[in-house]
Structure to design on (290 residues):
């Protein structure tokens, strides 16, 4: 069932697994937008709301998020509009193992030969094509082999770029927030790409006799995630969905103010505080429910 929530002034659409087909996904997930430069060697090559990021290096490129099963042609077209080669993707990463961020992985790996690197908690999900997902086991998509299993704090290096994989679990067991440093006009910019921070409808945070938690320790994982996110230095605020970081509104402002709109440390802190409050309220609600 589709659930609509208004959080922090942003309308967020959350879908259950049974509706995550191309004909029932939000149009924003599937609608192309012009690819654009963000900062340094970082570009957006996703759709209106499914964020995919390309990091360009002299030794090949890194792609974060493969989108839905139908997304690879959109991502390929966006990369080529930027005058880069789709086949230059050497490393494929994801924010988390939900089919709107990883279902296109098998096709991209087949097309490019990219090495797939996934956080430990999400590896069984992507390699089973969604079958072992704690929340959406009926939402299946092409399985993809993981070449490197990542752990919290691991580094991914390519062509002088170094990304840090922060395990920010809860939204999925292996939800990953990516950070790295980009250079812009001689200045250093700390980039944070939030993996996921919502408690989706149906997620169970509390263990009760007749209704177990979605997975053991899920509430503790969310608490740890917010601690980690608060600890990260952030200049450029991005995330798995455009709605996380006000993509549409910032693109409008970018027409007048240029790429400076992507520097948004205050927006990061505001959104982080709102999402943490959402979690705490939902946890309290579930603790009080019979």
């Amino acid at each position: 069932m589709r659930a609509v929530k208004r959080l922090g002034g942003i309308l967020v659409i959350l879908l259950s697994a049974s509706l995550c087909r191309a004909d029932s996904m939000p149009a924003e997930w599937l609608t192309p937008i012009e690819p654009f430069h963000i900062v340094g060697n970082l570009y957006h090559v996703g759709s209106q709301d499914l964020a995919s990021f390309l990091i360009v290096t002299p030794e090949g490129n890194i792609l974060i998020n493969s989108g839905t099963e139908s997304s690879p042609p959109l991502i390929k077209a966006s990369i080529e509009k930027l005058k880069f080669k789709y086949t230059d993707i050497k490393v494929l990463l994801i924010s988390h193992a939900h089919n709107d961020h990883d279902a296109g992985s098998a096709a991209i790996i087949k097309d490019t030969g990219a090495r797939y690197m996934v956080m430990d908690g999400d590896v069984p999900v992507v390699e089973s094509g969604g079958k072992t997902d704690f929340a959406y086991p009926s939402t299946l998509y092409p399985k993809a082999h993981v070449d490197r299993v990542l752990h919290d704090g691991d580094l991914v290096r390519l062509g002088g770029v170094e990304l840090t994989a922060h395990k920010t679990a809860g939204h999925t067991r292996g939800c990953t927030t990516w950070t790295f440093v980009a250079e812009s006009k001689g200045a250093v910019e700390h980039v944070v790409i939030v993996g996921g921070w919502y408690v989706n409808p149906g997620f169970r945070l509390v263990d009760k006799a007749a209704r177990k938690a979605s997975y053991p320790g899920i509430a503790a994982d969310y608490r740890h995630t917010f601690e980690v996110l608060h600890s990260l230095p952030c200049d450029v605020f991005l995330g798995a969905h455009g709605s996380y970081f006000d993509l549409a509104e910032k693109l409008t402002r970018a027409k007048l103010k240029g790429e400076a709109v992507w520097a948004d440390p205050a927006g990061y802190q505001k959104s982080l505080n709102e999402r943490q409050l959402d979690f705490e309220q939902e946890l309290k609600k579930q603790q009080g429910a019979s």
Q: What stands out?
A: Confidence is low (pLDDT under 50) at residues 1-20. The helical segments are 27-30, 72-81, 99-102, 105-112, 123-127, 218-231, 247-257, 265-288. Residues 40 and 187 are 10 Å apart (CA to CA).
